[in-house]
Fold these 2 entries.
Entry 1:
Amino acid sequence: MLNIVARNRVLMLLAVMAAACLALGFAAPGYLSAATASVILSNSLVLLLISLGTMLVILTRNIDVSSGSILGLSAATLGMSLNAGVSLPLAIALCVLTGMAAGALNGLLVAYLRIPSIVATLGTLGLYRGIMLIQTGGRWIEDLPQNLKALAGGIGFGISILTVTVLGLFILAWIFLRRTRFGRYFYAVGDNRDAAHHLGVPVRRVQFTAFVASGACAAIAGLIFAAQIGFIPNQAGNGVELKAIAVNVLGGVSLLGGSGSVAGVFTAAIFLTSIDSALVFLKIPAFWNDFIAGAILLIVLLLDGRIRLLIDRRIRARRYAVHARTPQGGGATGKIADKALLAEASR
Amino acid sequence: MKNILFRWEAALFLMLIAELAVFGFINPRFLNVGNLIYGTSDFVQIGLVALPLTLVIIAGGIDVSFASTIGLCAIVFGVSNFFGVPLPLAIGMALVAGALAGLLNATVIHLSKIQPLVVTLGNLYLFQGAATVLSGAVGAGGYEGIGNFPASFTSFGYAEFLGVPAPLAVFLGLAAVLVVLLHFTRFGRAVFLIGQSAEAARYSGLSVAATQTVTYVITGVCAAIAGLVMSAYFGSARVDLGAATLLPAVTAAVLGGASIYGGQGSILGTLLATFVIGYLQQGLQASGVPSQISSALSGGLLVAAVALRHGSALLADFIAVARQKRNNRASAF
């Protein structure tokens, strides 16, 4: 039972979410509707993308806390070039390029100058926000052209082009991480950097790529933010990086690198967003939001940690049990049994 | 002598002098001693949390929840004041709230064995949420402040103590206590050893959990002190009082020489770094630079400082290797 819980993180999360939704459906009729689902999905787009980018970085055993500022910086680039009369495709390209350049600086600092990622990205968090403010002169960017806002409009079934883009990116990331050699390198680097290096994995290039990808994701999230909100405030994206890390932890991505799945991140982001909307339906005052989100995150962390410890202890107990059963030791049968049990334990 | 000169703190001190000289050159009025001393009240709260944070980082942990602990403790004080609790008791309650917040951090970290960054990140939300709920409970709704403090409390924000403003005096006093605690006690040595290697510390009979717990509790209490000082200075307690201290405080600890991997750092370094960061912001304002640019510069400063430290370490390695090679060649002949 314990192993099933620990190994099927996504299924567990889905089960909890389904139970919570059913309970909410009873408590607040009208919650279980297609309209709610569509609102939750479109509300979670920004968080989904930031979490995806952060996940790529965390997989390589680094962390990126600058994505909120990259979001703001690229959104500002997008808004200012649009208002200067640049066409929409070109402005979007500029926006994504800004994000990638910002990610590349992070990658340069971490992968090539070997600055601890938490320190480097904390620094760039302030740096990028400052550059954004210099760029905009501290003013909000308003009067965005209609064709940008139209991107957030529905194209049927309550979804927009943006939703399709985000889902497409998730599928791409899933294929990349599961099915390509370079994608597998991400897990190898995060799991054991030295071993990966000795196996011929281009460790630095993998880390660098992760940061650039994270920057690109944050830039597209900035595009979505601008299209959905219709204006770009100075504090756009402020604090979303912390939420994205929370999503990753909730979704079963190990902060020690090397394990985690795209599906887990997707489910966890939807889960966290649906909490916010559930509070609205339950008519709980908005000032409870942070408290409840924090409490849920903390409980999940505690449970997750305890389960992991228990499993570790069980595996160790099995290993010691082998030695206890064959006190004479050294016998061929003992060794075989030992191996079989070890194989079972590590499965 | 050489050891003193080549310490990181000496470099920081030079950085501070150079910074003051540059800003004094741009705007001579900046170098007014009164200005410099009283200007500290605007950034002393960064140091108040950066000092204990240095302890946590040296012991191999990290705490980011202090940013909302500041707000939470200020609100606890404000709410108890609102209900007519006498001043000393209200202050005591705020301090206890801070200690409990730190204790919660440490307990969850040790029960779950999950990285401190994640746990304290969760608590960053939780404490902020708790503060918002508490302030909502007395009708201060959301992000409005709680005011109407007794005059004896608010006057503290502008009081003087031995010729220096009271907030600065509190900061220097705290620094003195922590210098003794970290550099001259058994506990301090344990903090360093645990940061170097928690395993080695455990095998040599130190209680890793207890020592780390103490560092988190100290951080909580100091965050409460920062919250109280800020409430007195601004005349109101708000949920988001500490939000702006998160990045500068971590910057101060890291710039001050604390290694994010644990086992390295000093209180004096963090103290100097606090002044470097604080005067950088004020100096830029005095030179007519918009506050947006100063925020970019302080982010850039963190990156540059760390790059410099890593770069100089790499360079030192490189020189040592080159010298060794030369010696080898010399001895071969």
Entry 2:
Amino acid sequence: MPMQRQPQGGNEGIMRKIVITVVGKDSVGIIARVCTYLADNEVNILDISQTIVDGFFNMMMIVDTAKCSINFDTFAADLENIGTDLGCIIHAQREDIFDQMHRI
Amino acid sequence: MININEVLETNNMIEKENLDVRTITIGISLLECIDSDLDALNEKIYNRITTVAKELVPTGQAIEREYGIPIVNKRISVTPIALVGGAACKKPEDFVTIAKTLDRAAKTLGINFIGGYSALVSKGMTGADELLIRSIPQALAETDFVCSSVNLGSTKTGLNMDAVKMMGEIILQAAEYTKENDSIGCAKLVVFCNAPDDNPFMAGAFHGVTEADAIINVGVSGPGVMRKALEAEHGTDFGSLCETVKKTAFKITRVGQLVAREASKRLNIPFGIIDLSLAPTPAIGDSIADIFEEMGLERAGAPGTTAALALLNDQVKKGGVMASSYVGGLSGAFIPVSEDQGMINAVLDGALTLEKLEAMTCVCSVGLDMIAIPGDTKATTISGIIADEMAIGMVNQKTTAVRLIPVIGKKVGDTVEFGGLLGYAPVMPVNSFDCSAFINRGGRIPAPIHSFKN
């Protein structure tokens, strides 16, 4: 499975499964814009779900970045900028933090 | 696979409930630096610290970014300086030069605090121990990031009452030396009974002699997360309450475990322990006192507070040990006054007194912490308070500590501002009856009978 492939190189900015969250007002094209960016960088989407909490649009994507060539900091900053453009907040976090907290 | 609700829960904890990793602390042994020449010793210490911990701050920041979890402090603890400086230091001022070296190393690395300006004198004091203790007030006044601690007793050795007496005087002197800044020197000085070797929290962190060359200890926190989780437990019974505390502690600790493992791997320094203390901050909602109120007490200090704290402390540990195999340090719930808005409110409302705090320390994870008292308190009275607290630790086989700030020039009802994580504190009244004839006896209080387990 590609998602379990160990990236080559050093320890800095290793890319693996990343959780992307989008929070903000619902508007046309949010998912399209994010997905385009992911596709351009060879990031594979494993799961998408969304929900409305307190009137805010919440979307979560789990993505596999094994083939992606940019480092984590750039990836996270790019997504954050896309969020600013769209008027919502986009965060990228490595999946381990959620796994660790919610799975024994 | 992780679902959206779990992701939102975690991110709410971080964004709205102040979940953070309180500290990554690298413990560094300085035993290899020992030299009889003071200049050579200082140079070796500086080089050792700045080499081993060179990548601490950037690594911490990278982990913060990748996981989206704040790591509030990056710190270093070192071998108790009384041991390291013994061969080179002939007078207290010699020890002060080491404090300045530690401070310089801290500034070079950009860390928040460096602990270990310490002496372990639970049974007796060497000449070097005494010189170091006498140098503490000057060392704290002339440095910014150095923290100091003294272990005055243990369940195995009893209490060193000569040192207890001396520390009353030293604390007052440290207050006097920093009186221009609300006696802040005392906020960086703590005395212990049963001090742990692997505590990552300041001011009491030092790298014990039982430890390896270098080790990573991580302190997690999260009173705000705990309070929020308990909102769902209004009116439920204690079984249900405990279950929620335990589950929440588990979640918090797992985050710490992840950060610790990651830091250990990236810095190539072995992982030591997770300290899963609920450590409050002055931020609204990040409070132990608020947890008590959530449990059903009108204010911290109301009857029932000690029981609530006992329950909290125990369940936090039970959740934590399930989450990490290496739990150590202090672990439990801290009850500092100045660093906790709810505790400050309880003091201002008259709900919480020094005596109630002392009772609470029988079941909390540390002791009397960050309590401002009048600047004209007698040294023997401070020693008396220390002796009481040390006795609680000795008899109950637990760590206890005292971090009192006699604020020079301030009296009961005044407020002191320490700033940052140290917060602010109302000056609390101290029992004014005299204990000097008791403190002045000198000698040791023997170890309790139940310490003889061999």
